[in-house]
Amino acid sequence: MKKTFKHILAATLMTLAASAAAQNLNSAYFLEGYTYGHELNPARDFNRKGYVSIPVIGNTNIAFRGNIGVKDIFYKNPNPNGSKLVSYLHPDISSKEAMDAFHNRNKLLMDMRLEVLSFGFHAFHGYNTFTLSARSNIGFNIPYELFDLTKNLSNRNYNISEFGATATAWAELGLGHSHQLNDAWRIGAKAKILVGAGYARLKMDNLRLDLSGENQWTANANATLEAGVKGFTWGDTETKEYKYKKDADGNPATYQQLDLDNADVDGGGANGFGLAFDLGAEWDLGKQDLVEGLKLSASLLDLGFIRWKDVAIAQNRGEAFVFDGFNDIKVKDGTGTKLDDQTDDIADRLSDLYSLQDGGTKSKARALGVTLNIAAEYALPTYDRLKFGFLSTSRIQGVYGWNEEKVSVTLSPCNFFEISGSAGVGTLGGNLGWVINLHPSVCSIYIGSDHCIGKFSKQWIPLRSNFDFCMGINIPFGKTRDHRTEAKRE
Questions:
Q1: Residue 107 forms beta bridges with which residues?
Q2: Are 444 and 478 in contact (CB under 8 A)?
Q3: Short-list 452, 447, 444, CA closest to 475
Q4: How many CA atoms lie within 13 A of 147 on its CB side?
Q5: By the 8 A CB rule, do 327 and 341 touch?
Q6: In the beta sheet, which residues pair with residue 187?
Q7: pLDDT for the residue numbered 490
Q8: How far apart are alpha carbons 279 and 457 in whole angstroms?
Q9: Residue 270 to residues 181, 246, 313: CA-CA distances in angstroms?
Q10: Which of 37, 188, 51, 25 has its CA nearest to residue 117?
Q11: Residues forming beta bridges with residue 374, ordered by sequence position
């Protein structure tokens, strides 16, 4: 039974082994000619009079994020004659080798932004931006205990309560303004109207397995599945029989269960509305005769929420069950119970444990994942076209949160060309990044990556879950303003 149970759980985990993701291009944080600097910090100025994006391709990001990857799930076959990959469950993959690849919280994340239309211009004593974007956020969190359970199922307690998934999609209309307070300080803010397209969340509360007894196991779980999509219904329920309960007449007891194959969406459209803000500030210490060439900055992004209407909720009953272990097993002849019958019994009971019932609908307010950026940049006094930067980024989103610290070197040999290289570490692993930004008078083109793609398997699957590719083409207007030689006060 343990082998069967292990492989059932492992198969569930492997379906989560790939997840697309995208975010702002952090490697471009210190580029003055980067068109979308206001997405990283709303206080950021732009060194042209303004810009207009080319719809859709003005800002395109394709990326993957996570602290586990294909290389952690699949291994080269230990058999010299074997040609196929094997999973971490393979008996020749040691427990230590397999489990050393996993973390307390194993994350696979998606954070995508598609810029439909964007423009910026200088007026009203500052720099103003308008953005219309389609965004989505997806996350999986798999606790270490679940991998341990699949690899090393043993007689002890397992707590898998942080297992879950979340997905949100929305449209965003943003209006931003940055303003030079004095020679040293610049502040900025962006207000964003949010229109929710869809929301879903799976959350496991109190998911515990007590396998410490030799002759008795106990399982307990509270599972909740939410779907906030307009016109969504769970569909018809089905009647199921308990495998371990009897009614008063001694017949199998029954219960109603949702059949997720019957779920349907009738119509669609906006199902939620919300509001969010981006806040930012920059402090030039050189302008206050403190440290020449040093500038500090910080930003808080996506501080807000969406209130979802008609969220359909499904929950399990939260009932614990006790399995009496393998008692009196019949191997060949004689009295006893066949092992296959007992393994089938526990599989049936687990099915009963996770069965979902319709919990009705209600409105729910859900916060966005907030991003905090803290940065320092230093331009050489003897050659201020060479800058060194440090950027700390933290995503505040519960179990789906992460942080990253990145150092970078930026060179601007002329007013219309910039290049930057970066290296970082964080909860999602190490990374190398780069960006090239070309912005002459007629167009602005950038291309870059925060996480280089790394190695591929023989099947051309990236071995790491952290890689991305970002590019954009926009139309700037006005001459380039060299912020190193002129005051920025407007």
A1: 141
A2: no
A3: 444
A4: 25
A5: no
A6: 179, 281
A7: 41
A8: 42
A9: 39, 46, 18
A10: 51
A11: 298, 392
Q: Are 53 and 35 in contact (CB under 8 A)?
A: yes
Q: Phi and psi (nearest 5°) for 349?
A: -70, -35
Checking if the pLDDT of 214 tops 70, the result is no
**pLDDT of res. 380:** 93
pLDDT for 486 beyond 60:
no
To the nearest 10 degrees (0 to 180), the angle between helices 144-151 and 2-14 is 140
Beta bridge pairs of residue 388: 378, 409
Return the residue matching tokens 């509360």: 205
pLDDT, tens digit, 9 for 90 and up, residues 224-248: 899 999 888 888 888 877 666 777 7
The predicted structure's pLDDT at residue 332: 43
Please say if the pLDDT value at position 373 is more than 80.
Answer: yes
Q: Tell me the average pLDDT across 168-180.
A: 96
b/e map 83-106, b = 16+ CB within 10 Å: eebbbbbbeebeeeebeebbbebb
The amino acid present at 19, given as its one-letter code, is: S
- Looking at residue 445, its pLDDT comes to 93
pTM: 0.83
Confidence at residue 333, expressed as pLDDT on a 0 to 100 scale: 43
Distances (CA, A) of 190 to 22, 128, 166, 279, 471: 21, 9, 26, 7, 23
Angle 253-347-147 (CA atoms, 0-180°, nearest 5)?
A: 140
Q: What is the mean pLDDT of residues 210-222?
A: 72
Q: 78: which residues sit within 8 A by CB, 6+ positions away?
A: 86, 90, 92, 93
Nearest to 259 by CA among 243, 240, 231: 240
Residue 292's nearest CA partner among 360, 368, 384, 204 is 384
- The Cα–Cα gap between 437 and 447 comes to 7
Minimal CA–CA distance to 439: which of 383, 489, 490, 478? Answer: 478
The set of residues, in sequence order, having a beta carbon less than 8 Å from that of 309 and lying 6+ positions away, is 228, 230, 271, 272, 363
Q: Comparing 100-109, 124-133, 413-422, which segment has the lowest mean pLDDT?
A: 100-109
DSSP run (H or E) holding 9: helix 2-14
Residues in the chain: 490
Q: Helix, strand, or coil here: 311?
A: strand
> Coil, helix or strand for 16?
coil
Q: 157-166, 358-367, 375-384, 417-426 — which is least confidently predicted?
A: 157-166
CA distance 220 to 210: 9
* Percent of the chain that is helix, strand, coil (3-state, to 5): 15, 55, 35
Residue of 11, 32, 14 whose CA lies nearest to 488 = 32
Is residue 15 over pLDDT 70?
no
